[in-house]
Structure formats: C-alpha cells, structure tokens
Specification:
The complex is a heterodimer of chains A (about 120) and B (about 180). With about 120 residues, chain A is mainly α. Chain A contains five helices and no strands. The mean pLDDT of chain A is about 75. Chain B has nine helices and no strands. With about 180 residues, chain B is mostly helical. Classes of the chains: A mainly alpha (about 120), B mainly alpha (about 180).
C-alpha cells in the first residue's frame, strides 16, 4: 500500500505542475536541482503533470512551415559538417600521429643500417 | 503498422547517429505541429520560423540524450519547441524553460510512472477542465499553449504576483483533485 503523501509532498506536486506549465519560480528551480540529484518523487511528479497536460496539445493547429525553414536548416547543417571535416583534415595535416613518427624513425633507421652494412 | 510514436522514437534514434535522411523525415513529420505551437507562442511568423529552426538544431545536437520512456517523443519535441520560443524571445543566449533544462540534463534515469499516469489521466483532462471555473480553465490552457509568466497572469487578473501564484496553485490543486477522483 502506498503511504499517504504529506502536505509538503502535495506542495511539491503543485510546484511540479508549475514546471510542467512552463512557469519558473524559485521553488521550481530548486525542485529541478533536486530532480537532477536523483529525487525520484520530484521527477515522477513532473512527468505525471507533463503527461496530464499533454492532451492540451491536441488543440494546436498544425501548420506546414515555409520551405525556406528546412532549406536554411539544411544549409547550416551542411556548413557545420563541412567545418568539422575541415578541422579534422587540418588537424591531421598539422600534427602527424605518434604512429607515423614511429614508422618514419624505423624506416630511417633501417635505411641507415642497410647503408652502413652494405658500405 | 508502426504508430506515430514508435516511428518518431525510431527517427530520433537514427538522428542520434547523424542519419540526415531520418532527420529530414522527422522534420516532415513533426514540424507542422511544432510550427503551429510556435505561431501561438511567438509574436510573429518570422520569430516562429527562427524558433522552429532552433528546435531542429537542438534536436540534431541532442537526439542522443532522448530516452524513450522518460518522456514520449511528442512531449519531448513539444518541450524543446516551448523552450525555443522562450529562447528566441529572451535572446539571452541560454534556454530558460526549467523543464527543458531538466530534460537535457537528465541522463540514464529509469522511466517511473509516466506511462501509467498518462494512461489514467489523459482521458480525464478535458472533462476536468470543463468542471473548473472558466477563468481558471482558460488560464491553465493559455499558460500551457501560449506561454506566459506570473507577471502576465497578475496583470490580466489585476492582482499581485503573489496572489496570482496562489490563485493558479488553487486551480491546479482543484484540477488535480478532479482528475484523480
């Protein structure tokens, strides 16, 4: 059997309702901190209120956004990934890896050793 | 046939692996709802478009943090959209919605009673709201769908912010009682 919740618990549940509504209050901020530290009851209350209010979203009228929004988003993501590629290429050009240095040293030693041996 | 929820979860999981085609499909599927919401919560179409773009930039970056079971994909996307609406208007460089911040910070939490709560409460919300005094019901509806603060509520009701808060809490308590009856 679930124990009855105290009046403080009830207040916490109302703060969770405020959070789910999107209202920020000092108590709400503290509750978020508590949930972040693993306070399961607070998290549960926030989840429950979020789920409770969810049907209100049925009242939203869906509107297809103009094509330019996707075009701009797509452009930004392409630009972002090209930037990452450029940075990665630049890094590999600027800083040869330890493995490459090791191979180069070994090859040089082998060439020098062969030259000395043959000479 | 996959439900919209399973499809969205799958697309978010693929987006987390930087699958551009899945991301585009997710955009096609979810953007009309989110754009509709943003048009309600922002002052004009241009701001709503900027917010929508921001929502999807956040989805692209944060898809890996989405945990099925913690919040439904629809709720997660709506929370991000509500957050983006605040962000583009506040223009402070940081998201301000506490719930969205909480979601983005949570990692590895186990699903608790979400599914149970959703199943038992969802069907009661509209009838319970209808039983509340009309001013209380419309305030809850307006705050959820269009956003706002205690300052806005106080101004509308011509009372202090403290009183506005007590009044809204009373309404939420009343709603909770009716929904859990």
């Amino acid at each position: 059997m679930t124990p009855a919740r105290s009046s403080q618990d009830k207040i916490d549940a109302l703060v969770a309702a405020e959070i789910a509504l999107g209202l920020v209050s000092p108590e709400a901020a503290q509750d978020v901190e508590a949930a972040d530290k693993g306070d399961a009851q607070v998290l549960c209350d926030i989840q429950a209120w979020s789920a409770r209010l969810m049907p209100l979203n049925d009242e939203i009228t869906a509107v297809v956004p103009p094509a330019r929004v996707w075009a701009s988003l797509d452009h930004k993501l392409q630009f972002q990934s090209r930037g990452i590629e450029r940075r990665l290429k630049g890094r590999s050009r600027q800083k040869p890896s330890a493995l490459r240095w090791a191979v180069a040293v070994l090859l040089s030693a082998a060439v020098l050793g062969s030259a000395l041996f043959l000479g | 046939m996959a439900t919209e929820q399973t499809r969205m979860e799958h697309l978010i999981a693929l987006t987390a692996r930087e699958d551009r085609a899945a991301f585009e499909e997710l955009y096609q599927l979810a953007s009309p709802l989110l754009f509709g919401l943003l048009l309600e919560r922002t002052p004009n179409k241009k701001t709503a478009e900027a917010a929508l773009e921001r929502v999807f930039m956040v989805i692209w970056a944060e898809a890996k943090s989405y945990q099925p079971g913690l919040f439904s994909p629809r709720l997660w996307l709506i929370m991000l959209a509500r957050d983006a609406a605040h962000y583009v208007q506040a223009a402070k460089g940081e998201p301000v919605t506490v719930l969205a911040q909480l979601f983005l910070r949570l990692r590895g939490q186990q699903p608790l009673e979400l599914r149970l709560a959703a199943a038992s409460d969802a069907s009661h919300l509209k009838s319970s709201l209808a039983q509340l005094p009309s001013q209380e019901a419309s305030a809850i509806r307006r705050l959820y769908l269009q956003g706002g603060s205690y300052a806005d509520l106080a101004k509308t009701r011509k009372i202090s912010e403290l009183d506005a808060r007590a009044w809204l809490r009373g309404a939420l308590f009343d709603l909770h009682q009716r929904m859990t009856k």
